[in-house]
């Protein structure tokens, strides 16, 4: 009898150890998550989320605050997180020019956990040093990759792990802090907030993924056919809206590419025509100068009397001695009228050709 009791107790002990060693079951909560690309819709909304203050949603993420002084913003889920255990993974980027950053996601640079029931005001003077349940010093500003934060709450144990943003390895985390006996409500909203004071950084939330953690030994509750059909219809509706938005984006992008190619070709044609137009203007100017010179030459030739050289100077007389006593013969070097007419005709012909060229 005692042997049977011992074996039964040992069996219960083994089952208990096995249950404690099992990891909780994870269930993805898509209504409590967001991730790019194509994050923002055509009406500048993010499905299942709302952003406030100076926050601005973009295609790749949500900018909680810009790098301007005295700005604050936040983003909150529209649906509540229901469950006593959960895990949240967030990809964050904090960038700025100074060596120290802004407020909110900045504590020189310190990451901490603070439990608040909504009645406690955060102590900005001490940066919450007297209010936190744990924390770690991590430089999360101006990193080459997004800084990832993994927050897990299960069996009243809160654990925070951080990836330093120096590597893109999705599984490389360092423990920041772990606190036990942390009592949190089983229902609540999820949010990210940030603020800038005298110093300013860009605070970007690139993605947030939420999983609820379930007891691995508990039987999963079966949903009714009506609830399953409702969930399937909601998922199909959301998928259809997403596919429609993607198609519209693709059409707009294709139209933009087509218009951009056409504009590029028109610009090249326009630039080529401008070059040709400029060359023609230069050629016309040179032809005008040449025609002016030709007209001046023709005018001078027409006004030149027979027996006179160009330029209005009288030709010098050349005397030649005849060997056999006939006296002197005066040879006058003059330009004849028919030679002047020939030059004028040539100039007129050239002038006509230049006029036709112009």
Automatic annotation (TrEMBL):
Q: Does the keyword Transmembrane apply?
A: yes
Spell out the subcellular localization from the entry.
Membrane
Spell out the InterPro entries in the cross-references.
Answer: ConA-like_dom_sf, Intracellular_Lectin-GPT, Lectin_leg
A GO molecular function term, named singly, is: D-mannose binding
Keywords carried by this UniProt record: Coiled coil, Membrane, Signal, Transmembrane, Transmembrane helix
* Segments forming a coiled coil: 228-255
Offer a single GO CC term for the protein: endoplasmic reticulum membrane
What superkingdom does the record give? Eukaryota
Q: Which region is the signal sequence?
A: 1-21
Q: Which PANTHER family match?
A: LECTIN, MANNOSE BINDING 1 LIKE, VESICULAR MANNOSE-BINDING LECTIN
| Protein's name according to its UniProt entry | L-type lectin-like domain-containing protein
Q: Which organism does this sequence originate in?
A: Elysia chlorotica (Eastern emerald elysia)
